[in-house]
Amino acid sequence: MKQKRYVRGRALRGRLLRKQAWKQKWRKKGECFGGGGATVTIKESCFLNEQFDHWAPQCPQPVSEEDTDPAGPELLVPAPQPVPGVPSLASTMLPLYSLGPSGQLAETPAEVFQALEQLGHQAFRPGQERAVMRILSGISTLLVLPTGAGKSLCYQLPALLYARRSPCLTLVISPLLSLMDDQVSGLPPCLKAACIHSGMTRKQRESVLQKVRAAQVHVLMLTPEALVGAGGLPPTTQLPPVAFACIDEVHCLSQWSHNFRPCYLRVCRVLRERMGVHCFLGLTATATRRTAGDVAQHLAVDEEPGLHGPAPVPANLHLSVSMDRDTDQALLTLLQGERFRNLDSIIIYCNRREDTERIAALLRTCLHAAQGPGPGGRAPKTMAEAYHAGMCGRERQRVQQAFMQGQLRVVVATVAFGMGLDRPDVRAVLHLGLPPSFESYVQAVGRAGRDGQPAHCHLFLQPQGEDLRELRRHVHANGTDFLAVKRLVQRVFPACTCTCTRPSPEQEGAMGGERLVPKYPPEEAEQLGVHQAAPGPRRTCVGHERALPVQLTVQALDMPEEAIETLLCYLELHPCHWLELLATTYIHCRLSCPGGPAQLQALAHRCPPLAACLAQRLLEDPGQGSSSVEFDMVKLVDSMGWELASVRRALCQLQWDHEPRTGVRRRTGVLVEFTELAFHLRSPGDLTAEEKDQICDFLYGRVQARERQALARLRRTFQAFHSVAFPSCGPCLEQQDDERSTRLKDLLGCYFEEVEEEAQGPGGMEDTQGPEPGQARLQDWEDQVRCDIRQFLFLRPEEKFSGRAVARIFHGIGSPCYPAQVYGQDRRFWRKYLNLSFHALVRLATEELLQVAR
Ligand SMILES: [Zn+2]
């Protein structure tokens, strides 16, 4: 008999394991940032030959210039650059065609059609021509087109024509790093393209930039991080003028979208303010009317955002849904039925990685015998393989290649598969379980039948809504408590002691700082629905630069980084514009001089920030004679009323000077290192207590509304599919039911056409209205739940849980302070009450916590 064990592996060692999990996470994060984090170690020895008498720049070992950069992470210490100024008018691009007298687009000229042919197309597809002509007339445009309807042509063609007229650059922002290299190599030869992303080495990056500077590149593809990250692009004065900027997956820009990414807002701002871009092309495959409207405002698109192009689901797709008890068996039956038996290329989507492996193995064992060798004596195809983001890159590539080349019949995948998949003859897309949103469903099924031939899509829905539970977890993972919101607000708006005399113009000029300027035209401030945007009282405080160290803040609030950034974004988007969010930055500085204290003193004469820092140091600790200094840059900067960016540049410049006779730039041997990543923002310090309360209420209300909205969306998704579902897959085996397929398409069409998404009903926040689909009645479980909560708390007396933290563990949701790697090992509690309402659990846990405290 098997021994029953509750704890996997060794017994729980909370703190140690948690610490380890943290370390791993931050190491990984460092890597994503292009080598930051763990590599920013301070070594007293030369890192080239490990000797202690010199640093790498003076290392006698012959190494290439490239390798001698003492600050390993390239992005942290950008080479000294002139201050990027406001782009001059000369660099702004004029449109290729002018508008008619009443603002109408010009008739499409012959050269556009010629270019179209040159790019390998015979004719425009719906929506393309208008978008292309708008961009060529210099008008910002939002284009909502289903996947595979030819969005990329809409930037390729204008890029080609603009570049043909005069040397210029088209920027394409795309979050899909894995696709970039493919996209670049897939472009027609007349269009020269390059990409920059975090997966590149410094050398590769430099060589790309070299080509860009020389105007040898027409299209430059960037990830959002590569554009707004610490390194960024060289100043516009060194680049050819930007014809226009194309932003892919532009729905991420909207706080109302199903996939809001705060860094997209900064993308827009950097493009507009640093790069001088006025003409934007926003591309997305999935946006509701409300999302589209919001995005249009951000891009300053002047027309009513129409959902141009065809309906969300093309007519050649046949949709069906069934609710089977045994999904695995039903899947096998369906694939062997008449409708699917002879279909050649099939994608099956699962919500969990484990399922992809399991289902692929199942298909291989159960269907392979029936298959036999391929027709015409070809080598038999592989039946099925799994694909998910947890697999290594090479393996994923292999599976994708095999599928593309027709050597693999079925891919069993998570949503990670299929973005940018360029195969027109996928014949079937199946879903095992509810997709997380209509957007994701439409995008997935849109991968089938792009050649216009009939294709089949089937969804297996769990009859009791069991799959809703899994999806709800993701919603609750982003929620937070009022207390955490309050802590954040306290950190963001600490009271200042300054009487805030505005800095004199000379002072501003001396630091070369970029001043706080209004970021949004007034109409954009209206997006919260407040039409009379109150400008707020006239502040005496002009605002201070502040930095919240990311790691510390994440732990203090027990919220993921992205969630904190989202809250900060809400404050910025608020009509009162409570703060200005700046790019995350490293704040801790360590400066070491190989020449000892004397050199440090000498440098201070050249560099006011260093002088100020040494002076402050002297007050605290009169001891002399150090050759290195460490300090918090933001404190220094704020105490002196300077700008962080310019101070950082000034410090970086200490690493270089000029040979007096020849004027050649050379290294001084001084080592300047920056560590400690922080949220960076500018906020006033004179908010009243009432204002802070008001901000807390606003933020908390916003978080709750978002949660309600997400839950309501999920329920609506479930109900829509449920309403057209057959009780079993039997009726779907042979022919499709056109009536139900059409009904589902209508439901989807309605969803995308709606302007307002009203969260109807309580949205799962209350359990008074009876349980949600997939949930049990709390009353039946209450005693047992309370008992388990008490036991859980009893076993961990040293932890300070909140009600939410306990509920998360019972729902199997990891958070920064209570990670899944640690708490997921204790199977007695982890995920135990997934069948109960999350908010009911929070309430019970809070009550029990109060009991314990008494
Ligand atoms: Zn102040």
Notes on the structure:
One of its GO terms (cellular component) is cytoplasm. Its main location: nucleus. This protein is an alpha/beta fold. Among the domains are: 15-44; 110-307, P-loop containing nucleotide triphosphate hydrolases (Rossmann fold, 3-Layer(aba) Sandwich), CATH 3.40.50.300; 317-473 and 725-753, P-loop containing nucleotide triphosphate hydrolases (Rossmann fold), CATH 3.40.50.300; 583-683, no CATH class; 776-853, no CATH class. 40% of the residues lie in helices and 12% in strands. It is built from 29 helices and 18 strands. A six-stranded parallel beta sheet has the order 1-6-5-2-4-3, sandwiched between helices. It has a six-stranded parallel beta sheet with strand order 7-12-11-8-10-9. The longest helix has 35 residues, at 689-723. It is globular, with a radius of gyration of 29 Å. Zinc ion (ZN) is lined by residues 496, 498, 500, 541, 544, 685-686.
Which secondary-structure class do the elements indicate? alpha/beta
CATH class of the domain at 110-307: Alpha Beta
Ligand names: zinc ion
- Average pLDDT, rounded to a whole number, is 79
pLDDT < 50 stretches: 7-12, 30-90, 502-536, 759-768
Helix content class: 25-40%
Shape: globular
Widest sheet, order of strands: 1-6-5-2-4-3
InterPro entries: DEAD/DEAH_box_helicase_dom, DNA_helicase_ATP-dep_RecQ, Helicase_ATP-bd, Helicase_C-like, P-loop_NTPase
Family: Belongs to the helicase family. RecQ subfamily.
Protein name: DNA 3'-5' helicase
Domain Helicase ATP-binding: 132-305
